[in-house]
Amino acid sequence: MHRMPQASRVTTRSGRHFSVSRWGHGPPLLLIHGILVNCSTWSSISELLGQHFTCFAVDLPSHGTEASRGDRGLLGHPRSLVSPLCELLDALEITRAALLGHSYGGLVALHMLVSASQRIEACAVIAPPALPYPTPLLAWTLKVPRVGESIVRRLYRRPLFERYFDHDVYNGQRRPDSCDIDALYANFRHPDRGRALTAGLKAALCPTLRDADISRMAQLRAVVWGAEDRIVPVDIGRRLAALAPRARLTAIAGGCHAVHELNAAQVWAALMPALLDRA
User: Fold this and answer.
1) Pairing relation of β-strands 54-59 and 97-102?
2) Which end of the chain is more exposed for a tag (fewer CB within 10 A), N or C?
3) What tens digit of pLDDT does each residue of 131-157 get?
4) CA-to-CA distance for 230 and 226, rounded, in angstroms?
């Protein structure tokens, strides 16, 4: 695994701060991570990406470096991140960029295609919860009016939190680092950031993209999935790729939800022709 470059702080015209790691050479590529984690999720594939792109990996509000700065968050419906991320592109002096998102970050990327397609050259997504899908009972607790998010934060103590990553994210193929889990769990338990994170989780359970929206996503070129994903089933990827006019699904045999972390070379082989396609 490669170490991520030191992040720098970027301030947008509306005064919002983002931590962004930058590396590589080539056309710009904006990377959007999933819920609960941070931009270090791209470490395994970062060298491959940097050979062809100038990569900008952002920490979403209430995540990663931004979590330590008291950001109360902008999470919830992924549509709410479209305008701030477009402002981030402006601050980076990027008119158009390729886009790569994982899980919740992939859902944000798809909403950028709906509302800001003029800023996107090409888009690829990894296991986004883009369409309704079966979820565990505990996750549905989030939908209980007024108290659901609080209940989930109380139930998800550290052992269950660690098991989620070990069993559900990595399918038992990688043992999560204890220090990483400690940091992620502390963020989840933080009063303000924890509320923001559970709001994001809740939004991921209630996707609002319409088939008609997806059918107009001409820049969506690659849909990548772990064939054994235990969080968002690969059938969602099949449906998403069938609806998007130019998208191609690649299901990685034996792959988990974090397939880009454990199967970086295979994921890159699926991403490269799609992200480099400017036609």
Assistant:
1) unpaired
2) C
3) 988 776 666 677 677 677 777 777 778
4) 9
Q: Which of 220, 213, 211 is nearest to 239 (CA)?
A: 211
Write down the pLDDT at residue 249: 98
- Give the type of residue at 72: R
User: Which domains are delineated in the chain?
Assistant: 8-133+207-275 (3.40.50.1820)
Mean pLDDT to the nearest integer, 88-116: 97
Q: Residue 22 burial by CB count (10 A; 0-12/13-18/19+): exposed, middle or buried?
A: middle
Burial category of 270 from C-beta neighbours within 10 Å (exposed 0-12, middle 13-18, buried 19 and up): buried
27 in Cβ contact with 53 (< 8 Å):
yes
Question: Tokens 């930058």 — which residue?
Answer: 22
Give percent helix, percent strand, percent coil of the chain, each to the nearest 5. 45, 15, 35
Q: Structure tokens of 175?
A: 């043992």
Residue 142: closest CA among 132, 156, 126: 156
